[in-house]
Protein backbone atom coordinates (compact mmCIF):
# COMPACT_ATOMS: atom_id res chain seq x y z
CA UNK A 1 0.00 0.00 0.00
CA UNK A 2 1.26 3.52 -0.82
CA UNK A 3 2.22 5.62 2.17
CA UNK A 4 0.45 8.91 2.86
CA UNK A 5 3.66 10.76 1.92
CA UNK A 6 3.71 9.15 -1.54
CA UNK A 7 0.05 10.02 -2.14
CA UNK A 8 0.69 13.67 -1.17
CA UNK A 9 3.67 13.82 -3.56
CA UNK A 10 1.50 12.38 -6.35
CA UNK A 11 -1.28 14.91 -5.65
CA UNK A 12 1.25 17.76 -5.65
CA UNK A 13 2.71 16.54 -8.95
CA UNK A 14 -0.74 16.38 -10.55
CA UNK A 15 -1.65 19.80 -9.13
CA UNK A 16 1.56 21.47 -10.37
CA UNK A 17 1.20 19.79 -13.76
CA UNK A 18 -2.43 20.91 -13.94
CA UNK A 19 -1.73 24.48 -12.78
CA UNK A 20 0.94 24.77 -15.49
CA UNK A 21 -1.57 23.57 -18.09
CA UNK A 22 -4.22 25.88 -16.69
CA UNK A 23 -1.73 28.74 -16.93
CA UNK A 24 -0.88 28.08 -20.57
CA UNK A 25 -4.43 27.55 -21.88
CA UNK A 26 -5.14 31.30 -21.71
CA UNK A 27 -2.16 32.20 -23.94
CA UNK A 28 -3.81 33.74 -27.00
CA UNK A 29 -1.08 35.71 -28.76
CA UNK A 30 2.71 35.94 -29.11
CA UNK A 31 4.56 38.69 -30.97
CA UNK A 32 8.26 39.35 -31.66
CA UNK A 33 9.16 43.03 -31.82
CA UNK A 34 12.57 44.16 -33.11
CA UNK A 35 13.70 47.36 -31.37
CA UNK A 36 17.13 49.00 -31.31
CA UNK A 37 18.00 47.28 -28.02
CA UNK A 38 17.03 43.81 -29.23
CA UNK A 39 14.17 41.57 -30.31
CA UNK A 40 11.50 41.40 -27.61
CA UNK A 41 8.93 38.66 -27.14
CA UNK A 42 5.46 39.76 -26.04
CA UNK A 43 2.99 37.14 -24.80
CA UNK A 44 -0.63 37.78 -23.93
CA UNK A 45 -2.99 35.63 -21.85
CA UNK A 46 -6.70 36.36 -22.03
CA UNK A 47 -9.20 34.39 -19.95
CA UNK A 48 -12.40 34.69 -21.95
CA UNK A 49 -14.50 33.48 -19.00
CA UNK A 50 -12.84 35.45 -16.18
CA UNK A 51 -11.66 38.34 -18.31
CA UNK A 52 -8.14 37.75 -16.92
CA UNK A 53 -5.42 39.66 -18.78
CA UNK A 54 -1.70 38.97 -18.37
CA UNK A 55 1.06 40.55 -20.45
CA UNK A 56 4.62 39.14 -20.46
CA UNK A 57 7.58 40.94 -22.03
CA UNK A 58 10.62 38.68 -22.50
CA UNK A 59 9.11 36.21 -20.01
CA UNK A 60 8.63 38.86 -17.29
CA UNK A 61 5.11 39.70 -16.15
CA UNK A 62 4.28 43.36 -16.94
CA UNK A 63 0.52 43.44 -16.32
CA UNK A 64 -1.85 41.10 -14.47
CA UNK A 65 -5.57 41.74 -14.09
CA UNK A 66 -7.49 38.79 -12.66
CA UNK A 67 -11.16 39.73 -13.04
CA UNK A 68 -12.33 42.02 -15.81
CA UNK A 69 -16.04 42.25 -16.54
CA UNK A 70 -15.31 43.93 -19.85
CA UNK A 71 -13.71 41.36 -22.17
CA UNK A 72 -12.73 43.87 -24.86
CA UNK A 73 -10.44 46.86 -24.49
CA UNK A 74 -6.72 47.56 -24.48
CA UNK A 75 -3.61 47.16 -22.37
CA UNK A 76 -0.64 49.55 -22.70
CA UNK A 77 2.86 48.81 -21.39
CA UNK A 78 6.53 49.69 -22.02
CA UNK A 79 8.95 47.51 -24.00
CA UNK A 80 12.75 47.55 -23.96
CA UNK A 81 15.39 49.94 -22.64
CA UNK A 82 13.83 52.97 -24.33
CA UNK A 83 10.40 52.10 -22.83
CA UNK A 84 8.72 52.01 -26.24
CA UNK A 85 4.93 52.23 -25.89
CA UNK A 86 3.11 49.03 -26.82
CA UNK A 87 -0.66 48.49 -26.79
CA UNK A 88 -2.60 45.24 -27.18
CA UNK A 89 -6.10 45.81 -28.57
CA UNK A 90 -8.74 43.21 -27.70
CA UNK A 91 -11.71 43.24 -30.08
CA UNK A 92 -14.71 40.92 -30.26
CA UNK A 93 -15.01 39.35 -33.70
CA UNK A 94 -18.18 37.30 -33.19
CA UNK A 95 -19.81 35.55 -30.25
CA UNK A 96 -16.92 34.45 -28.05
CA UNK A 97 -14.17 34.91 -30.64
CA UNK A 98 -11.64 37.69 -30.11
CA UNK A 99 -8.99 39.35 -32.22
CA UNK A 100 -5.74 40.63 -30.68
CA UNK A 101 -3.62 43.27 -32.37
CA UNK A 102 -0.39 44.84 -31.20
CA UNK A 103 0.45 48.49 -31.75
CA UNK A 104 3.90 50.00 -31.24
CA UNK A 105 4.03 53.77 -30.73
CA UNK A 106 0.45 54.03 -32.01
CA UNK A 107 1.09 52.14 -35.27
CA UNK A 108 0.11 48.59 -36.16
CA UNK A 109 3.06 46.20 -35.75
CA UNK A 110 3.27 45.75 -39.56
CA UNK A 111 3.31 49.53 -40.19
CA UNK A 112 5.78 50.08 -37.36
CA UNK A 113 8.19 47.46 -38.76
CA UNK A 114 7.88 48.87 -42.31
CA UNK A 115 8.62 52.36 -41.01
CA UNK A 116 11.45 51.02 -38.85
CA UNK A 117 13.17 49.43 -41.85
CA UNK A 118 13.37 52.95 -43.35
CA UNK A 119 14.72 54.62 -40.18
CA UNK A 120 17.20 51.95 -39.01
CA UNK A 121 19.84 49.57 -40.35
CA UNK A 122 20.49 46.25 -38.63
CA UNK A 123 23.47 43.93 -38.92
CA UNK A 124 23.90 40.53 -37.28
CA UNK A 125 27.41 39.13 -36.93
CA UNK A 126 29.50 36.69 -34.94
CA UNK A 127 32.81 37.68 -33.35
CA UNK A 128 34.88 35.13 -31.47
CA UNK A 129 31.90 32.82 -31.04
CA UNK A 130 29.57 35.56 -29.70
CA UNK A 131 26.60 36.81 -31.71
CA UNK A 132 26.08 40.54 -32.00
CA UNK A 133 23.16 42.59 -33.30
CA UNK A 134 24.17 46.11 -34.31
CA UNK A 135 21.47 48.70 -35.00
CA UNK A 136 21.93 52.19 -36.43
CA UNK A 137 19.14 54.70 -35.83
CA UNK A 138 19.52 56.88 -38.93
CA UNK A 139 17.68 59.91 -37.54
CA UNK A 140 19.87 60.25 -34.40
CA UNK A 141 22.93 58.28 -35.64
CA UNK A 142 22.77 56.33 -32.35
CA UNK A 143 24.38 52.90 -32.53
CA UNK A 144 23.11 50.01 -30.41
CA UNK A 145 24.84 46.67 -29.88
CA UNK A 146 23.12 43.79 -28.05
CA UNK A 147 20.84 46.14 -26.16
CA UNK A 148 23.48 48.74 -25.22
CA UNK A 149 23.85 52.19 -26.70
CA UNK A 150 27.46 52.46 -27.89
CA UNK A 151 29.97 55.26 -27.39
CA UNK A 152 30.69 56.50 -30.91
CA UNK A 153 32.99 59.00 -32.63
CA UNK A 154 31.89 60.49 -35.93
CA UNK A 155 34.07 62.05 -38.59
CA UNK A 156 33.63 63.52 -42.05
CA UNK A 157 35.57 61.77 -44.80
CA UNK A 158 35.96 62.49 -48.50
CA UNK A 159 32.89 60.56 -49.67
CA UNK A 160 30.60 60.90 -46.61
CA UNK A 161 30.83 60.20 -42.87
CA UNK A 162 32.21 57.46 -40.67
CA UNK A 163 30.90 56.52 -37.22
CA UNK A 164 33.51 54.61 -35.20
CA UNK A 165 32.94 52.36 -32.19
CA UNK A 166 34.38 49.14 -30.84
CA UNK A 167 32.91 45.80 -29.84
CA UNK A 168 35.12 43.54 -27.67
CA UNK A 169 38.47 44.83 -29.04
CA UNK A 170 37.13 44.79 -32.62
CA UNK A 171 37.16 48.13 -34.43
CA UNK A 172 33.84 48.88 -36.08
CA UNK A 173 32.86 51.64 -38.46
CA UNK A 174 29.57 52.56 -40.09
CA UNK A 175 30.21 54.39 -43.37
CA UNK A 176 27.50 56.66 -44.73
CA UNK A 177 27.88 57.41 -48.43
CA UNK A 178 25.43 59.12 -50.78
CA UNK A 179 24.03 56.70 -53.36
CA UNK A 180 23.80 59.53 -55.88
CA UNK A 181 20.12 58.58 -56.34
CA UNK A 182 17.42 60.59 -54.57
CA UNK A 183 15.18 57.56 -53.98
CA UNK A 184 17.93 55.51 -52.32
CA UNK A 185 19.43 58.37 -50.35
CA UNK A 186 22.37 57.49 -48.13
CA UNK A 187 23.83 53.99 -48.04
CA UNK A 188 25.09 52.78 -44.63
CA UNK A 189 27.71 50.04 -44.49
CA UNK A 190 29.10 48.31 -41.39
CA UNK A 191 32.78 47.41 -41.49
CA UNK A 192 34.28 45.29 -38.72
CA UNK A 193 38.03 44.62 -38.75
CA UNK A 194 38.15 45.75 -42.42
CA UNK A 195 35.39 43.25 -43.34
CA UNK A 196 32.05 44.42 -44.73
CA UNK A 197 29.06 42.91 -42.91
CA UNK A 198 25.87 42.26 -44.93
CA UNK A 199 22.74 43.96 -43.62
CA UNK A 200 20.18 41.74 -41.86
CA UNK A 201 16.49 41.71 -42.73
CA UNK A 202 14.20 41.60 -39.69
UniProtKB/TrEMBL annotation:
InterPro entries given in the database record: FAIM1, FAIM1_dom_sf
GO CC, alphabetical: cytoplasm
Transmembrane segments: none
Subcellular location: Cytoplasm
Source superkingdom: Eukaryota
UniProt keyword list: Apoptosis, Cytoplasm
Pfam families: FAIM1
Keyword check for Cytoplasm: yes
Matching PANTHER family: FAS APOPTOTIC INHIBITORY MOLECULE 1, FAS APOPTOTIC INHIBITORY MOLECULE FAIM
Record-stated family: Belongs to the FAIM1 family.
Function: Plays a role as an inducible effector molecule that mediates Fas resistance produced by surface Ig engagement in B cells.
Name recorded for this polypeptide: Fas apoptotic inhibitory molecule 1
Encoding gene (name): Faim
